[in-house]
Amino acid sequence: MRSVEGRLSKVEGRLGGVEEHLKGVEARLGRVEEHLDSVEKSLGSVWEGLRSIEKRLDRVEAGVEDLRKEVGEKFRKLEEYIDVRVERLGRAFSGYQEFLVEYLSVKGVVSPREAEMLKNEAARLSLLAVNPFTKEEWEKLKKYLEKNPEDFTLEEALEFRELGRKAIAEYWDRPEAYKLHLYTCVVYGLTLRKLEEEKARRASPQ
Q1: Which parts form a coiled-coil structure per UniProt (predicted)?
Q2: Interval 158-182 mean pLDDT
């Protein structure tokens, strides 16, 4: 009997030790749970901060996009303004050039030899890989370039000058186009001079 009681007492002692150990484990688990709660709260703060940064980046991207559109629109308007100004300047220069060359031709300052030299320069427009003329216009241009500058009718001279204007409108950056335009103005001026001389001869007494 005493032997059984002794064994029970040992078992109870051991159980008491296990209980103490379990209490220690529970305490440790409690501390781990508290630590995990703290980590979770920290992660929540981090995620909140990341969401705040993401929202700020979205606003910055939206602002950059708006700025890009605004700058692009301003550049587009500036480009259009420059194109218009350059076109006006080109038309003004071409108009002055026409008047001067035609006036000099009418007054006889430009000789037929000089006109022939300018014609040869103007013919270089045909060397362009692409030209602004239709097939019909190109045929007329070739015909007029081969024609004697003093043999044009007024209608032909006007049509020839329009072809010269078209050349500089399409190829304002090519010297060949300006030479062609100059030559058409010379032909127009020589034609006007010829018509004036014929008119004067008919009006003079025989």
Answers
A1: 22-70
A2: 87
